[in-house]
Amino acid sequence: MRNSTGIWFLVMPAVLVLPLATTSISVLVRWLPSRYHMEYSASLNRNLVRALETVAVLLIVNPFDLLRLAVASAFRARCCTPKGFYALLAVDICIVAAVPSFQGTLNGVVLFKVGSPVPELARSAVSQMVKKPHLGVLFAFLAILKQIRFVVMSVKINSPCQADLRDGGGTWFEKPYYFSAVLFVVMWLGCCWHIPDHLLRRRRRRWRRSRLGGRWYRL
């Protein structure tokens, strides 16, 4: 079974590494001062968390070129990926560029799907662009970079270092940070799920007769 696994390597760091790294770093910088009876400074804590987050982001972003090649290889191997996935990502970039807020992004995507003030020209342009594999890879790559930037900014704003850990640390969508991190993972796993090739289209199966025993077998 072949599928476009390159996208998974691009998406999974943003989905799993950043929330888990932020949670671990925040817990660590809160636990160490109390464990060793050190003076606690909120500003030092915040700066340390952001510095460690920056290092984590650099470690994640560096291998993007190789991963982009992996995505291109998946397309060259004719791995089937829903084109609508790239269309929504491209539209998401345009919406975020126009309305730089997550709520605006959600509203824009919903309006785009339902039938909204989005011009027909924009829809036709997106549909034409994602028909070409290389442009689809480019849109996916840029959109994932944008999502990573959004995650980093949200983590910095709603970091657990700004709230008590017993309250879950910070809030995303008016929920505790840890609950929201799990919800974020589930959302992206659902959005980035790739339908295998054999489920999207029915392949013609050829039969050959074995020379030994006269049995038929399926290729």
TrEMBL record:
Keywords: Membrane, Transmembrane, Transmembrane helix
Keyword Transmembrane: yes
Spans traversing the lipid bilayer: 6-32, 44-64, 84-114, 177-196
Domain of life: Eukaryota
Listed name of the protein: Uncharacterized protein
Lineage: Eukaryota, Fungi, Dikarya, Ascomycota, Pezizomycotina
